[in-house]
# Entry
Amino acid sequence: ILQLAATARAVAVGDKDFSARAPKHGDDELGQLVDDFNGMLAQLGQRDAALQAAHDGLGKRVEERTAELQSQIAERRKAEEALWQSEQLYAQIALNASDVLYVLHRSEGRYDWFGQIDKALGYAEGEFPRTFAAWADSIHHQDRVRVLRELDESCRSGRTFHSEYRMERKDGSHVYWSDRGRPIYDHKGGVAKFIGACTDITERRQKAEALQKARESAESASQAKSQFLANMSHEIRTPMNGIIGMTELALDTELTAEQRGLLITVKDSADTLLALINDILDFSKIEAGKLQLDPVDFSLREALEESVLTLALRAHQKGLELACHLPPDVPDMLVGDAGRLRQIVVNLVGNAVKFTGAGEVVVHVAVESADDAAVTLHLTVADTGIGISREKLDLIFESFTQADGSTTRTHGGTGLGLAISRQLVALMGGRIWVESETGRGSRFHFTARFLRSKISRTSTTRFVNLRQFPVLAVDHNATNRLILQELLTRWEMRPVLVGTATEAIAEMERAYKDGAPFPLVLLDATLPPPGGFGLAHHVLQRPGLVGGIVMMLSSASQLEDAARCRSLGIPVHLTKPVRESELLDAVMTALGNDRAARRRAATDAVPVLRSGRPLRVLLAEDNAVNQRLAVRLLEKWGHSVVVAVDGRKAIEAWEEGAFDLILMDVQMPELSGLEATVEIRQRADNPKSRIPIIAMTAHALAGDREKCLSAGMDQYVTKPIDPRLLFEAVESVTTGAAPQRLLVSPPAHPAPLDFDPAIVLQRMDGDRDLLKEVTTLFIEDTPRQVADLRATIERRDGPALERAAHALKGAVGNFGARAAYEAALDLEAFGRASDFVHAPEKLAFLENQIALLGPALEAFLKDKAA
# Structure
């Protein structure tokens, strides 16, 4: 027991060595106590070891956490140091920057300014209030509302705020600021801050104002110079025109040969001087930067043909072939300065004629690039003249420079023409250059950009029917043959082109043997021997070799050609280079002289039409002539007709009466035919009892078919009314006699003013009484329609002009008056484009055509009555 107690005391007061054990002396109760005591010591030792291990682990973790915290503290101190340094740097940058930075807290009405805001506005450091109200009050009163509105808009939309305005300084003066900023939103979508920068632009604005004053001063000086040029032009041209005019009058009097020679010299010298004055004035305008282009709608073909024709006499006097080649793919109606284009072409062609002793001068046009809005053309003037040496190619476009500048040069001139042309080409967005070699001719090229015209010019070929019409063209010049081939092919004729009289006779004899002699022959008067007239004499001496007409193409210098043509019985001759419109008119005039053939065609063309069952037809048409014609045709076919003069009345008539068919004019007052059709289709109670509607309109453009179908129409015929097509359309929609298809009549084919009975009578279904009735109504009604046209032009009402011209176009088209139809068509296009510049001139031409048409119709009716 004492040993047990000593062991317990040793464990309790010593080093707590739980590995000690009490001795055991037996297995009695005391021994059992010793075992329990030693077991307790063992458990205490295990627990002590576990506690020690836990203590050691905790200590290690404490040491690690302490080290981690110390590291974080060090990093934070480093970040705080960097932040402080950054703030110092940004503050220094803002202080020295030209911009004044700011942060606007709108909800608090507070501004944080960074930079020298006080210095910028003339205040002491910190004196300018840092509030929104102070900033707003400092804005110039004329700018304040606008700037605040722009700031609010930026906050609402999130777009960048950029405004220039005046800020009032402390002393009452103002500075110009350029303020740029944008909002920053919070998580709720509200504007948390507005951050921006202001720049002082006072100096820039002052420079701009000074520059504006200088510009105004320069413009005033330039205007004075322009006025001087205008006055000088007037003062010089007045006596020059007097000299030229009086010289021409003197040349028309009886003169001796010597006097005539002297006056011709005076006139030639005056013309040369006037041309020189024009060049100098144009050059002065270019140098002063005052030459402006005057873009208008124009016909490219007409502009080029007119330009070339002005030089035709000079070219033919030298024995030169002069031609203008405009391929079919080149657009005709453009927007640009046609006058300046002609000036360039005349300059280049005039030079080519001047420096060409033999051969040809050809103007060629091609499309260099194009899009939906514009087209860039590439024009070439090629000659077979003396050419230009390589060292002079870069100099000829300089002012007052010629390829040959010597005092012994053969050809005169100032050298301004090409310099002016270069400037004009540049104004047209193009460039000009030349390719040439001495003795091998020259090719002058230039490009020019033009807009596409909104005016859709009607080609003259749409008014004639020359399809598969054989024609023999004889011309020794290959370029002329190419141009003739393109023109005749575009008119859908069947041309045969040869270059000599021998080839021409061979072709004529071949056609004669085949039983189909050429009904039309075009001859060049300048053919190699036997020449054009010799060939014509030979041909006309052999009856049947030519089945119709011979036309002569002669040079401008051969004034006796007209008399020779008359003596040979050639009805038409033209001057080369031949204009497309003149050639077509000549062909139609020549063919129109065969009255017997046309009467036979009229007899064969008028069918006897009769409908299978009578119909009750509603005719919606506002034009009185078209009303009468349609009513009479329908009544002849066995139908009864009710007329409505506009779309609204057509709907009312449809609702009141039972009709089998509606003929609907597309373009009418109050309510158009398309709108009326849509309303009728919407109001119809029973879709199964759908009433057929046929569109009648003078529109035959791409897209009109789709418009009519989408509006609910069933058929479509164009005006002037073709009885056969109208009859087919009526029968197809009412009896199913023809397939349900859209019948588009061919475009109108008005003939020249001496109208063709075949066309007129066919339009009237062969009824001369109907023609007389419609003619009377036309003569009575057209003065009102012309007056309406004039009124729409005077009040510049484009839509009304389009409607009035459209109505009159249909009326004159019924009589095959081609020129009047074209004029009305142009006026309709002018109205669509609101172009009132050329409308009065076109109206005057139309009035003249109508004035001629009335008597011609009356004369025709009297002749038929007799």
